[in-house]
Amino acid sequence: MISRYTLPEMEKVWSDTNKYDNWLKVEIAVCWALKEVGTIPVDDYNKIKKSNYNYKRLNEILSDTKHDMTAFLLSITENMSDEGRWIHYGLTTSDVWDTATSLQIVEAANIILVQLKNLKNILTNQAIKHKDTVMMGRTHGIHAEPMTLGLKFLLWAEEISRSQIRLENSIKQINIGKISGPVGTNASVSPKVEELTCERLGLNVAPISNQIIQRDRYADFMTTLAICGGSLEKFATEIRTLQRTEIGELQEPFGSLQTGSSSMPHKKNPDITERICGLSRILRGNSLVALENISLWGERDISHSSAERIVLPDSCFTINYMLHKFIEIMEGLIINKDKMKENINYTRGLIYSQRLMLTLISKGMTRDIAYRIVQKTSNDSWNNKIELKTLISNNTEIKDILSLKEIDEVFDINYYLRNISYKFNNSNLIKDRLS
Fold this sequence. Notes:
Elements: H1 8-13, H2 16-36, H3 42-48, H4 55-65, H5 68-77, H6 93-129, E1 134-139, E2 142-148, H7 149-174, E3 176-177, H8 191-201, E4 204-205, H9 216-243, E5 250-251, H10 271-292, H11 303-332, E6 334-335, H12 337-344, H13 353-362, H14 367-384, H15 388-393, H16 396-399, H17 404-410, H18 420-425, H19 428-434
Parallel strand pairs: 3-4
Antiparallel strand pairs: 1-2, 5-6
């Protein structure tokens, strides 16, 4: 991932130094556990716990060994005395690598979790603020019936809340360590050592493992990120749509010196929301890689390893950046209430067609007849640019059933907003604010 799309906190999590720091943390934790069960002398452990790897030397060795773990281990032990023999005692590479990767993923996931909670709160605040901001609801891109902007934002907040729940559950799935030896039998490293090591690292023990932590756990995490990215794409697409010149109801923040086009100075393009939509495709693609990595030969091959070196950090960088930018958008979102009112009136009252039909039905007219009358009158209104209410008020079939007062009630926009408060009060996000 190029630096434009990374943030320092997440870069640190997936840096080489943090990876090797976690490897060292696992190795020393295992040695501590071995000391606790009496395998390693206390004096040797006291020396081991002060040991460290040499990053420069590690890379020099790696150029010869072509194996990360052996290079890492030699960079530690080549400057040690006899106590060095205990490092990596009874372990296989994946004991260290996978357990350390769990620590990295959990660390990255907690950064993302903080962002999700922040975005959820921002969306909820915006929902409350615009609870009664009336706008046009659209289905298939066509004017349907009035709604409020606050209800739209609350819908988004609820969706992000579900992403938060999925990520919290995913963290539980990935907060797992494995110190069970070459094929998971605990033949070379005892279950007690595994238990003590994981406890010291703050991880749960994988109940059953082979040489690796099973990749359905990684796939769960990666698909969780992809679903979250899909939600952000959905929100961004809606903002892009409502920013269109013909609609003009919302606009992402645009700086005073910002430029939208190299050729057309007037342009204020939805650059950030388009970027979010594009990056969501990366997450979906990476989640497919994670699903492909579930199936490995026998107790393990390394076909997953090369791909994970790319897709794990890439997906964390990507969702981290997407959330960061979407939070910026929601904090600075430009809302044009006048344009919302103008768009509501654009169809000359056609948006009241269902209300009119239902009123006619309630007065005894059959649904089919009511539908046909309202449909024909609506078409006449649109084609002849005449207010629907005017045509209805002069329609003899309707005048025989509805009084002028009842017709006025049909075209009262407040009818569509009567249960907005109920919808808000029914949301757990709002209930949490009130409790």
